[in-house]
Amino acid sequence: MKPRKAKKPHLVLVGNGMAGIACLEQILRYGDMFDITIFGDETHVNYSRILLSNVLAGVHGFDDITLNPLEWYRERNISLRLGVRITGVDPVAHTISGDDGAVTSYDKLLIATGSHPFVPPVPGLEKKGVCAWRTLDDTQRLLEWSAPGKHAIVLGGGLLGLEAARGLQVQGCEVTVIHLLDTLMNRQLDSTGGHYVQRKMENLGITVRTKCTVRAIHGKERVESVELNTGKILPADFVVVAAGILPNAELGRMAGLEVKRGIVVNDFLETSNPDIFAVGECVEHRGMTYGLVAPLIEQGKVLAATITGNKGPTYEGSSTATKLKVAGVEVFSAGVIEETEAGLDIVRYEDPGLGIYKKLVLKGGQMVGAILVGDTSESGRYMEWIRSKEDLTAKRRNLLIPEPPKDPGASIAEMSDSEVVCGCMGVSKGTIITAIHDRGICTLSQLKEATRASAGCGSCAGTCTALLAAVAPGFEPDVKQVLCSCVPFPEEQLREMVHTQQIRSVQQVLDIYGNGTGCEKCRPALSYMVDMVWCGEHEEDRSSRFINDRVHANIQKDGTFSVVPRMRGGVTSPAELRRIAEVAEKYNVPLVKVTGSQRLDLLGVKKQDLPGIWADLGMPSGQAYAKGVRMVKTCVGSEFCRFGTQDAISTGVELEKRLENLFTPHKTKLAVVGCPRNCAEATVKDIGLVGQEGSWQVVVGGAAGKSVRKADVLVTVASTEEALESAELFFQYYREHANYLERTYDFVERTGMDKIRRETVYAVPEARAGLLDRLRKAKSASYDAWLEREQPKTATQFVQIQPMEAPEEVSYR
Amino acid sequence: MSWLKVTPAENVPLREGRSVCIGRREIAIFHLTDGFKAIDNRCPHNLGPLCDGITKGTTVVCPLHGWNINLENGKVLKPDVPVGVTTYPVRVIEGIVEIQLPEMKEAVA
């Protein structure tokens, strides 16, 4: 036992999870009244258990979900003992003992031991490859086991089970969910709602078996299969148990406290022993146990008042409202959800095509419950109605119709101060505004630290930001720019997720991480991303491409298109020129123009003429319409020019051959010049090669468009091959790291040339080889888009549809 | 008003549009996740070909200058202007997209 010299009473907290720490944070607000020791049987600092599903799905790393880092404990002089399980308590001696043998005395004991997974009695559960899912370590184990093609069986189709299924499915596993009842998430949903969620899960490729149990788990040492009650055998590489949770009340029993399902507490969160308190999932209050975060936070606030001698506030139970996103489906559930008594009016709305289901339960003009699946945008309003018991008689006709926001700030302004913004942490609008004013908060991260708002599931981050924007004088938006409100993640993170989660289509990204719909901004960006990461081993979705990339031509102001054949290095031949001239006449091309890129442009072409023109030209696409490699402009160089020091033309043609047909975050223009006189303007191109006597200077990030920027020198090298390779290294680095629609000149300024050199031309050989390998892979998967004239993506890619029937009035012809 | 057979449904890929000339009208047919829509193929702004736009939900974004048009009622959603585009009822019978045109008195002239 550690001798303690301080006179302050010793508060010992058993349980280092969300409930205990949230309560402790409240206790500390009353002042520095205790010496504090915390015991946790996990080896991690306090993290958000809610976000474990995101760790499993690869959205968050382990570090991202930490709520209280070690410094937090240190700064508050809290003695933190991790990896120790408390196995005994002596309420008379006021001591507890741990499995490390140490005995610790306490003045006040706070039990926040949470819960443990309920494991149904199934033979074979002891085999390797069976895991309950509760902790960070469990999550890590599941991530190690999962790999594309592995068969995962999830026992339990409740919230936890579906989150596990979604995470494993994202990791590429073949997932089957086995659920005892007919309705998934039966605690939150009625049977219709459950079936909507089920359909969505099945659309994601997850197999769902309801009204089904596991009779046995088979295998020698490791799991090999599971046997269902129907006798059916399913192959299994591992089994996840997510069938519910039970309170960890053992310590209460040992202390002789009153324990039923959980440790019984009164409205002040006192147990039957005056020096022992309990909070969180391990307690039972008025016959209820809770497994969601919001009730634990409410309990913590009351307990903090009680334990610090400010007894007064009472806890009267929590409404069991849930708003969450499970497997990409938004679900909200509150209050009464089934027709359990007479006199209830049910208002329903369903759209199976969109997967939207809404059910409102009314009683005598008041709302008493609601279920929303697929669209929870109105949940705040319904929750407030349930809470306030407002008489809705006058609004009855419009209950399902959202009130249109009058101005962007209106929905914020209309919220009452008592309305809860962060359901996980129980933070109201009023609390947030007070914090913003009193502490001069300007950013979301400061707000999160001060109030805990948005530290749970994070779904209220948008509202918190809107509040900050409306209230904080010095508001600063978070530095991390997200791609789009449809998929609210930074592009860097999305690229990582597409890669690690093996996501191979735009729709899948939108379904799993976004709103399922997307828009004209994020769809093309995601198309590029999926293509860049998978190099052809992806599902090409033309509906996500801008029209230019659907028909491989640049749309003009009148809806016609322009055609620019590739003319590498600006070099052509009499035969090519003749064909271009013939095509222009044959198709009555209204305008032929020499472009600024040393090529010829045929303007005013109808969509249906494109395949014919390409065939007659017999030249590859110049990609003048794409976010891709445009051209390599060249000067005459040493072959003909009397000042030329390097062979610009053949180097330029070679560079163009190596990079052509590849797509980039924005258009990429290149040039090669044979001497520093710079006739082909290489120093204002995205990538330029500038010949010097005996060497090449490789320059990047130049621009001569809306803004004019002189390119930065990437490197100077002796040989032409080194110069080409340096250009390739930068090119691939830009492809992998730039945000969509970010030109090289913005990219180099954002990234910094030092970092770019360090990670391209000066990188270790393996890193350079990696970039070049990925470039070669992309190159070998690329092709001349104009060959789609022979194999169109769809039968009607270029043609206008001819109607099968004409209206009778066509006689005017 | 009668229904006109236009084209087999598979000729309009999911979430894309295709144009078709019927009489004097050029109509864009869209295949959305919740069914087919038909609308005049001209953006009220600069006559852009709506059939070439990217769809988001039940909205099409004109490829020329990004006007947003609701395919269900033809209303312009972005920018906020009080103009619209004519829409037509569509149905799919035995895999064939059919649309219904209003009486076309003007066509006889």
Give an overview in words.
The complex is a heterodimer of chains A (813) and B (109). Chain A has 24 helices and 38 strands. Chain A is an alpha/beta fold and 813 residues long. Chain A folds into five domains: 10-116 and 247-307, 3-Layer(bba) Sandwich (FAD/NAD(P)-binding domain), CATH 3.50.50.60; 130-243, 3-Layer(bba) Sandwich (FAD/NAD(P)-binding domain); 416-479, Arc Repressor Mutant, subunit A (Orthogonal Bundle); 482-545, no CATH class; 628-790, 2-Layer Sandwich (Sulfite Reductase Hemoprotein, domain 1). In chain A, the strands form eleven sheets. A five-stranded parallel sheet of chain A has the order 3-2-1-7-19, with no helix packed on it. Chain B is mainly beta. Chain B has strands at residues 3-8, 17-22, 25-32, 35-40, 54-56, 59-61, 68-70, 76-78, 87-88, 90-93, 96-100. Chain B is globular. Helix content of chain B is 0%, strand content 45%. Chain A binds chain B through residues 351, 353-354, 517-520, 523-524, 542-547, 550, 555, 557-559, 794-796, 800-807, 809-812, and chain B through 4-7, 10-16, 18-24, 29, 33-35, 46-49, 52-57, 61, 63-64, 66, 96, 101, 104, 107-109.
